[in-house]
Hints:
Number of domains: 2
Order of helices and strands: EHEHEHEHEEHEHEHEEEEEH
Strand content: 15-25%
Distance between the termini: 50 Å
CATH topology of the largest domain: Rossmann fold
Number of strands: 13
Strand order of the largest sheet: 5-6-4-10-11-12-9-13
Number of helices: 8
CATH class of the largest domain: Alpha Beta
Largest sheet: 8 strands, mixed
Amino acid sequence: MVHHYGHGGGGFSLSWGTGEMAVGLLDDLDAPPERTPVTVLGAGAVGLATARLLQERGHDVGIVSADPIDATTSAVAGASWYPVGVFAGAPTTEARGRVFERAARRAHARFAALADHGFGVRWGDEYVPDNSPERIEAGHGWVFRRLRDLYAGGELLGKDAHPFATRYALRYRTLFMDAPVYLAAMLDAFRANGGSIDIRRLGSVDDVRALPAQVVFNCTGVGARALFGDHTVTPVRGRLFHLEPQPGVDYGVQIDDFRYVVPRSSALLLGTSWEPEGSGIVQEGRDAESVIPEIARVTG
């Protein structure tokens, strides 16, 4: 059993990198030979990346998921490449920082390789508007500074060079993943390489033990609280609002306190996230009065 939960505030962004690290753990064990059946629990971004990586290593892979891909937490992720929320500040040790950086760089390379190849991944501009350049720098914190070379073309723009109601805006190039398109394409690729998916809910560890596969990867995320009794997993709640696509708004916006705007083919997403509160992952509608006006104040 390999536990690969993912990370609130960066799980989608890191999925390929942490997946490579999780799959690599087989090298340190009495690893099974190629073609050994492997089961992945969970069909979100983390589970699908892990399953594809296992297929690349030659394993026969099946996914067991409590929900279809369009009902997973990943399906409602904003999903720009932005793993900043993994740490509130700097990591507690330099060793943890190096592990994070390795996962982030590997993940970024895999998403970049998928850009413009039918996976709903594309390059685009992202803006960070504020009246203070110092706040822009501080707000992105340790993660952004450590990975700054991955945010190409970083440029601080003055008032007349950006569309926001602030004095300044940082603009850089980044990757956007249209989550529903990406998950569907990943599932198609998984199936095309011989994978199968079984939509059913496992109720206990005994159900996991009864699976026929020799190796199981647990990519259930917050679902591990109930399935494995792991109450060290802390759920994070997000607020997400879908607007009709807006002509000309094909860029992302990151605002203080992790408010954001993310363009999709089917909607313009407004939201905020990374609140470790309760068990609900997405809270729809209740806080529109606070989120939408604040975004509108900055975006003009």
